[in-house]
C-alpha cells in the first residue's frame, strides 16, 4: 500500500475505498495503521452519531495547531467557544450582506487583469483564482481595516507556512526539540502572519466600530455568557479562517476549467445562463438565486474535487463502526473524495454531470453519500460563504472573458492543504464576444 500511496496518495485512497466497496478498511503503513471509513452510514456515525468519540487530534492536526493555535479548526472547549461566537457571522444572510464588497473586490482585480489578458498571453488560472479568492476573504474578514501592503503579505506567508510543514506532517513522531527542514521558514512565516493580524485584532478590540466585516463583528460579539473572544482566540480564529477560506475556494475552482473543456455542453449552458442573467453589466448579488445551473455545476465540482479531500479523527474510546472494532488512539480517515467515487452510492461516479443536482426533486441519496463540506457539529463554517463567493467570482469572470484551456490534461490530484492539480492549469482569457 505504501508505494501506491506515495506515488499518488489521493487516487490510491480512492482506489482502496472502491476495492473495499464501502467496508471499513485498515491501511497498513508500518507503525501507522489508520482505518479508512467511506460508507455513508459509517461516515455519519463518526461525524455525527458518536462524534465526541472522534476528535481532531494526533498526527495530522498537531502540526497544524502550530499555526492555527487553539481555534475553530481544533476541538474541545476552545473549538466550542469559537464555533458559538463565529456561527452567527457565517449564516447565509450575514454572508449575503458582504456580497457587494466581494463583487467590488473581484471587479477591481479583473480590471487589473484585463490588459494582461488582452494581449493573449497564457494565464495561470490557479494563481489568478487564488488572488481573487484572497481579496474576497480579506474583504470579509478585515474590510477596509487592513492596508493593502499588509494584505499582500498574508498570502505568501501562508503559502510558506503550508509548504514548510510537510516534513512534520509526514514525520509526526519527530519531537519539536529536534529541528527538521522547513522549521525555520515555518517559524518566520507564522511571525509574519502575526505581525499583520495581531495589530488588527488589538485595534478592533480597542475600537470595534460598526463594520460588518468579521474582525469588527468579532470584537463586538458576545457568547451566551456575555463573554467575547479575547485577543488570542481572535487571532487564532482569524488566522485559521483565512488559512482555509481562500485556498479551498481557489483550488476547487481551478479544477473547473479542465472539466468544462471536456464537457462543451455544460460550458454552453453555463455561459448561456451568465449571458441571460448577468449580461455585460457588473454583477449584482441579487442575481445569485437565478444562477441555478451555475450552482449545480459548483455542487458537482465539489463532488469530484472536494477541497477538504481527507480529514482524520482520533478515536477516544474503543468503538465499533459497521461491525469493525476500532481501537482507542487510532486514526480514522474520512474522505469525501473517496465516498463520492463509490459505485455503490453514485451512478457513473467518475463522470462530471451537473444534472445530478438540477433535478427536482433532487436525486434521492443518503445525506452522507455527499459531504464535500463535512457534517455534524464540525460542518464547514464557510459553506454559505462558498456559495456566495464562488458564483460571484465566476459571474464576474465570465461576464468579461471566455477562458480557453491550453492543455487538456490529464491533471493529477495532489494533496496539499486541499486537493489541487499538480500541473499548472493555463488558459487564454478571450474577451467575451470574440469567441
Ligand atoms: C470549496 C470550499 C470548501 C470546502 C470543500 C470545505 C470543506 C470543509 C470540510 C470538509 C470541513 C470539515 C472538516 C472536519 O470535519 O474536520 C470544513 C470545516 C471548516 N471550514 Fe470549510 N470548506 C470550504 C470553504 C470554506 C470557506 C470559504 C471557509 C471560510 C470561512 C471555511 C471555513 C471552515 C472552518 C472554519 C471549518 C471548521 C469548522 C468547525 O470545525 O467547526 N471553509 N470545511
Can you describe what's shown?
- The chain is an alpha+beta fold.
- It has one domain (2-429): Cytochrome P450 (Cytochrome p450), CATH 1.10.630.
- Helices cover 51% and strands 9% of the residues.
- The protein has 18 helices and 12 strands.
- The strands form 4 sheets. A 5-stranded mixed beta sheet has the order 1-2-8-5-3.
- Helix 7 runs parallel beside helix 18 (383-400) and helix 15 (264-277) packs antiparallel against helix 16 (292-304).
- The chain is globular and about 60 Å long.
- 40% of the residues are buried.
- The mean pLDDT is 90.
Count of spatially separate domains: 1
Radius of gyration: 22 Å
The pLDDT mean sits at 90
Order of helices and strands: HHEEHEHHHHEHHHHHHHHHEEEEHHEEEE
How many helical stretches? 18
Helix fraction, binned, reads 40-55%
What is the rounded distance between the termini?
47 Å
Name the CATH superfamily classification.
Cytochrome P450
What would the principal axes of the Cα set say about the shape?
A: globular
Structure classification: alpha+beta
User: Which small-molecule species are bound to the chains here?
Assistant: protoporphyrin IX containing FE
Biggest sheet strand order reads: 1-2-8-5-3
CATH topology: Cytochrome p450
At CATH level 2, the architecture is: Orthogonal Bundle
CATH C-level name: Mainly Alpha
Number of DSSP E strands: 12
Largest sheet, described in full? 5 strands, mixed
Query: Per DSSP, what share of the residues sits in E-state strands of 2 or more residues?
Result: 5-15%
Amino acid at each position: 500500500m505504501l508505494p501506491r500511496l506515495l506515488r499518488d496518495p489521493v487516487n490510491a485512497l480512492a482506489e482502496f475505498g472502491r476495492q473495499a466497496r464501502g467496508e471499513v478498511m485498515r491501511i497498513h503503513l508500518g507503525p501507522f495503521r489508520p482505518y479508512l471509513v467511506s460508507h455513508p452510514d459509517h461516515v455519519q456515525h463518526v461525524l455525527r452519531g458518536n462524534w465526541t468519540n472522534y476528535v481532531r487530534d494526533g498526527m495530522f492536526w498537531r502540526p497544524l495547531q502550530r499555526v492555527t493555535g487553539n481555534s475553530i479548526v481544533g476541538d474541545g472547549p476552545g473549538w466550542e467557544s469559537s464555533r458559538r461566537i463565529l456561527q452567527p457571522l457565517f449564516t447565509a444572510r450575514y454572508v449575503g450582506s458582504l456580497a457587494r464588497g466581494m463583487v467590488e473586490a473581484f471587479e477591481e482585480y479583473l480590471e487589473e487583469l484585463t490588459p494582461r489578458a488582452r494581449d493573449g498571453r497564457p494565464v495561470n488560472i490557479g494563481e489568478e483564482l487564488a488572488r481573487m479568492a484572497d481579496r474576497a476573504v480579506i474583504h470579509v474578514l478585515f474590510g477596509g481595516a487592513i492596508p493593502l501592503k499588509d494584505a499582500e503579505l498574508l498570502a505568501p506567508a501562508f503559502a510558506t507556512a503550508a509548504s514548510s510543514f510537510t516534513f512534520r506532517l509526514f514525520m509526526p513522531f519527530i519531537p519539536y526539540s529536534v529541528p527538521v527542514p522547513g522549521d525555520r521558514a515555518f517559524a518566520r512565516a507564522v511571525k509574519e502572519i502575526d505581525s499583520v493580524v495581531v495589530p488588527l485584532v488589538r485595534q478592533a478590540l480597542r475600537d470595534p466600530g460598526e463594520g460588518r466585516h468579521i474582525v469588527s463583528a468579532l470584537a463586538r460579539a458576545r457568547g451566551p455568557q456575555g463573554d467575547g473572544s479575547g485577543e488570542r482566540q481572535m487571532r487564532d480564529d482569524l488566522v485559521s479562517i483565512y488559512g482555509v477560506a481562500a485556498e479551498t475556494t481557489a483550488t476547487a475552482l481551478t479544477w473547473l476549467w479542465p472539466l468544462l473543456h471536456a464537457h462543451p455542453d455544460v460550458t454552453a449552458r453555463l455561459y448561456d445562463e451568465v449571458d441571460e442573467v448577468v449580461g455585460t453589466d457588473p454583477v449584482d448579488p441579487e442575481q445569485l438565486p437565478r444562477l441555478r445551473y451555475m450552482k449545480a455545476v459548483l455542487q458537482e465540482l465539489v463532488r469530484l474535487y472536494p477541497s477538504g479531500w481527507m480529514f482524520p479523527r482520533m478515536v477516544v474510546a474503543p468503538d465499533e463502526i459497521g461491525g469493525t472494532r476500532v481501537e482507542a488512539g487510532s486514526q480514522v480517515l474520512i474522505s469525501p473524495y473517496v465516498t463520492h467515487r463509490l459505485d455503490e452510492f453514485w451512478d457513473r461516479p467518475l463522470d462530471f454531470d451537473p444534472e445530478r443536482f438540477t433535478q427536482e426533486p433532487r436525486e434521492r441519496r443518503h445525506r452522507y453519500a455527499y459531504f464535500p463540506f463535512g457534517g455534524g457539529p464540525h460542518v464547514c463554517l464557510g459553506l454559505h460563504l462558498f456559495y456566495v463567493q464562488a458564483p460571484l467570482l465566476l459571474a464576474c469572470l465570465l461576464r468579461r472573458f471566455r477562458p480557453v484551456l491550453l492543455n487538456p490534461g490529464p491533471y493529477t490530484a495532489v494533496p496539499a492543504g486541499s486537493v489541487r492539480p499538480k500541473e499548472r492549469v493555463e488558459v487564454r482569457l478571450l474577451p467575451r464576444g470574440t469567441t
